[in-house]
Design a protein that fits this description.
By secondary structure, the chain is of the alpha+beta class. The protein has 4 helices and 20 strands. Strands 9, 12, 13, 14, 15, 16, 17, 18, 19 and 20 form a 10-stranded antiparallel beta sheet that branches. Strands 3-2-6-7 form a 4-stranded antiparallel beta sheet. A 3-stranded antiparallel beta sheet has the order 1-5-4. The chain binds zinc ion.
Length: 326
């Protein structure tokens, strides 16, 4: 069982306040030694920033291109990512969706929260909580827009659609394990704050997109959960690589996902690679983007050799293509 770090809100606040107090970016993460921290503003500008933050309205309707703000590309739909303007502030604000800490990036002249939106979310109005150290909590609204994903019909082994009691019990155990793995919210690598391309991912395997994200799936005529990642068809044995720097936090052989590797990239951003024919890493390994994790296979519920690649942000599976260069 890998180490799973789940910070309470109070623990998270204390941790952030310690970092703010010491301004020591190396405390944030061992991922990178290239660090640059936003220059501290003097007190007047900080107070102006606080005032602006408290007045700052809603997520901006018009979003700039990724070249201007980096990755991911915002797409506020179910299974997408919302970019929420938090305004300027001297220190990085804490943002929460319910109890879940959110990815917050930017510098003192402007911060943004990035919210992974559940595929099951209904379109409509939502809000996050935002708080500065010692400051009052305030809410910031955002809107989830409607989006209709395509339907996909697949033929698979009947035993992977109508589960036997033994397979159902195994799947339920594995689901509980995966929930535990994906509770993890670690610190953001500090270079994410200043490097606009820090979160741009590389495709883990070259191949043909065989099933898009969000597809409403019908297996052997029966509707099942929508597709929470993308499928890339590639020959058996093709190397699969890390999409972004990260730490291996789980490996295993699961009923639906087959041989699987989970990577933690930091700040609630995780990725999973499934149906592998072999795994060449183990929990605790730290990988750079492009380093191998295993090879393409067809283990678990698969119609042929392919990679299922999933990306999770604040515990929601989101569209991996939002993290890729267009
Ligand atoms: Zn898939």
């Amino acid at each position: 069982m890998p180490h799973v770090e789940t910070l309470s809100i109070r623990g998270r606040l204390q941790s952030l306040q310690r970092q703010w107090r010491y301004h020591d970016p190396m405390r944030l993460t061992p991922f990178s030694c290239h660090t640059r921290f936003p220059q501290a503003l003097h007190r007047r500008r900080w107070l102006l920033g606080l005032a602006a933050l408290s007045l700052s309205p809603v997520a901006r309707a018009t979003e700039p291109a990724p070249e201007q703000h980096g990755w991911p590309r915002p797409r506020p739909v179910p299974g997408g990512v919302a970019r929420i303007d938090l305004g300027p502030a001297e220190f990085r604000p804490l943002a929460l969706q319910g109890d879940t800490p959110l990815l917050v990036l930017g510098q003192s002249n402007g911060w943004h929260a990035w919210v992974g939106i559940a595929l099951s979310a209904e379109p409509g109005s939502y809000q996050i909580d935002c708080q500065l150290p010692g400051g009052a909590k305030r809410t910031v609204p955002y809107t989830v827009e409607p989006h209709r994903y395509p339907e996909q019909h697949l033929r698979v082994e009947p035993r992977t659609v109508e589960l036997s009691p033994e397979d159902l019990a195994r799947h339920q155990r594995e689901q509980a394990h995966q929930r535990q793995v994906t509770q993890r919210i670690s610190e953001a690598p500090p270079d994410w704050l200043w490097n606009p391309v820090a979160l741009r991912m590389s495709v883990p395997v070259k191949g043909r997109l065989s099933s898009p994200f969000g597809a409403r799936r019908v297996f052997n005529g029966q509707a099942r959960q929508p597709h929470s990642g993308i499928d890339i068809a590639a020959p058996q044995g093709t190397a699969v690589t890390a999409a972004l720097d990260g730490e291996v936090v789980d490996t295993g052989n699961y009923f639906f996902n087959g041989l699987t590797v989970w990577l933690d990239h930091g700040a609630g951003l995780l990725s999973m690679m499934c149906h592998l024919s072999r795994i060449s890493v183990q929990p605790g390994d730290r990988l750079l983007s492009g380093q191998p994790v295993g090879a393409v296979g067809a283990t678990g519920r698969a119609t042929g050799p392919h990679l299922h690649w999933g990306v999770m942000l604040n515990r929601q599976m989101v569209d991996p293509t939002l993290f890729l260069a267009v």
